[in-house]
Amino acid sequence: xxxxxxxxxxxxxxxxxxxxxxxxxxxxxxxxxxxxxxxxxxxxxxxxxxxxxxxxxxxxxxxxxxxxxxxxxxxxxxxxxxxxxxxxxxxxxxxxxxxxxxxxxxxxxxxxxxxxxxxxxxxxxxxxxxxxxxxxxxxxxxxxxxxxxxxxxxxxxxxxxxxxxxxxxxxxxxxxxxxxxxxxxxxxxxxxxxxxxxxxxxxxxxxxxxxxxxxxxxxxxxxxxxxxxxxxxxxxxxxxxxxxxxxxxxxxxxxxxxxxxxxxxxxxxxxxxxxxxxxxxxxxxxxxxxxxxxxxxxxxxxxxxxxxxxxxxxxxxxxxxxxxxxxxxxxxxxxxxxxxxxxxxxxxxxxxxxxxxxxxxxxxxxxxxxxxxxxxxxxxxxxxxxxxxxxxxxxxxxxxxxxxxxxxxxxx
Amino acid sequence: xxxxxxxxxxxxxxxxxxxxxxxxxxxxxxxxxxxxxxxxxxxxxxxxxxxxxxxxxxxxxxxxxxxxxxxxxxxxxxxxxxxxxxxxxxxxxxxxxxxxxxxxxxxxxxxxxxxxxxxxxxxxxxxxxxxxxxxxxxxxxxxxxxxxxxxxxxxxxxxxxxxxxxxxxxxxxxxxxxxxxxxxxxxxxxxxxxxxxxxxxxxxxxxxxxxxxxxxxxxxxxxxxxxxxxxxxxxxxxxxxxxxxxxxxxxxxxxxxxxxxxxxxxxxxxxxxxxxxxxxxxxxxxxxxxxxxxxxxxxxxxxxxxxxxxxxxxxxxxxxxxxxxxxxxxxxxxxxxxxxxxxxxxxxxxxxxxxxxxxxxxxxxxxxxxxxxxxxxxxxxxxxxxxxxxxxxxxxxxxxxxxxxxxxxxxx
Lengths: 412, 412
Prior knowledge:
The structure is a homodimer of 412-residue chains.
Chain A: E1 3-8, H1 16-31, E2 35-40, H2 46-57, H3 63-70, H4 72-87, E3 92-95, E4 103-104, E5 113-115, H5 119-126, E6 131-135, E7 138-140, E8 146-148, H6 153-164, E9 169-174, E10 195-197, H7 198-206, H8 214-223, E11 227-231, E12 242-245, E13 258-262, E14 265-274, H9 279-289, E15 297-299, E16 306-314, H10 318-330, E17 338-342, E18 345-351, H11 361-371, E19 378-382, E20 385-391, H12 395-405
Parallel strand pairs in A: 1-2, 1-9, 2-6, 3-6, 9-11, 10-12
Antiparallel strand pairs in A: 4-5, 7-8, 11-12, 13-18, 14-16, 14-17, 15-16, 18-20, 19-20
Helix pairs in contact in A: 1-4, 6-8, 7-8, 9-10, 11-12
């Protein structure tokens, strides 16, 4: 029988009633003729509770013990989901990560899945079991310790199972009914997308649309897993949610499919850096060593051998960045007059595969912002994305104006 | 280094502060030169919460899934305890049941430990780790599924580790400071025992003194594990708690060491049973098949080929017992006029190894009860125990009177 992977997030299994509701959806797919692999998150709030225990005990914790503690929430949901399905006469059993086993690297709290042997579960399917309920977010290291995949890791578990079992589709049930052209809380005209390409979703996911863990989209793209995001709270039909798929499967071809916005950015400016060959390496080397994720970079034209260098990074890495750069200055590796952190900024991005073939997208974006009197601080572009850093107070205005300018409320 | 096993029950690890307190005790034993195996229960309330989830989902649950769910509480505590010890600079790590592995039978929810390979943990001890924190109550079946050992199973885990690692002692930290001559809530004069023999503890444990899981005492007796019960809430000293040990190690030799009382009994009477050879088998066979634990049995002298048969069983098995006997009657296997269940009874027992060599204990017990005007309904005796079934309303009075009569408030 064809295999379907269904993943239920924390809010979709927040209590026994919701687990029953999710189990009913699973039952429908079983009746449709699928062998189903269900990936479950912890009941919402559980993982946060466990994390707070760990934080309380040990601020600088041993990640191996952290993983052993925080992975337990998923085990509870997996067992309860299997029991609920059995109550509905659907043959089901639960698997914890180590039982499959979901083999991962030893990078605790941010482990990567290396292999998922399918024999055990396939053998049970062939014996009449119809649903394998697997605890998401977790795996086992080569040393036999429990690992976790980072927050949102259950999405990645789901996609990895879909790839390993050659599933027809991977349905991610969550508390939103799909991927939107932008955050509906910011722009009321935001429209749910029927389809979006992996590449676009990846840009949106990493730009702050918190629907899916970025890693899961990467994995889906690499293995060609058809991914669907849909709500577990709405009536189900065949076209529910948003399908994330290969570019070829998308007919609609607007230049921009979505506007992403992120408040979690900071702008750092090194004032009056001595300009010399290798200066960029001297600046960004230490930042990288201190695990600062530099996003946008802008270098002013040098005057009299000195220049200003501006970059952006996540707001919670500002302290680390300052430490890295001041240390490098003390060591004499770089020389600057001042280091200014601006944490009152936001990043707004337009994303769309169509901009590869259609010109004028950047011009339209800049003009729209200019018409609203919004000053652009930093620009960065990729093949399918244009991002700008602006004052945070203008973020909502910028999103709304761009959504209008690119007519994203219209379906085609 | 010598190995010590320390087990902390749910109330001793109920929150982070208590885990810290328990960890401090562990740290002291490490400083004393022990390699320590710590067995932890779930934080108090957690297992009940998980059990209620399962009951809510599925009244007739699959015990394999039940075990997968309810075992998760211990995993959380184990990780948190290891982190807390690390914070105190004590080299520690956690083990879940399957990681040791604690090999059990497949009797889910009531599994028995079959083997505990010591190599993994011993290897870590030899590499400098000082504390192995092990999740109690759980193991893994030959099929690789998670099992649990029944409520209170962490005590059994602790004793089994003490046996497997040839530990010097197994300390059970709980919310009471030892084993008492009787329930202090019933008799204010109850006195904490310094030592008690395995045999006596076994009688007391199975008679309703809920300090230790019966199975753990059996195991300790079989493997000669010196077991100590003590409070995690009191100042520690060398003589804290009660030592449960072999008879030879006890000097004190009173005929009675403790009075146990249990409200969870029911008296069942089969009125006017046709008396014939094999009638006892015909009655108790079906009861055994329906998993009714018959305790005391009394058969009246037959008159005109008919007799009354009385037995006691746990109060929550009365329905099952009635079903078993009525079915047997319908099948014509037994014949009786009436079946009367009396659930307003209590069992009171006097326990002591000394009664083997000292006569007159039974006589003194019966006389004491008579002096208080308490009618004895059923009597049963073993080598080191005399039990009587009485009206429940007299239970406290009987316990107090017997405690006085045997002078249990005095140490010798």
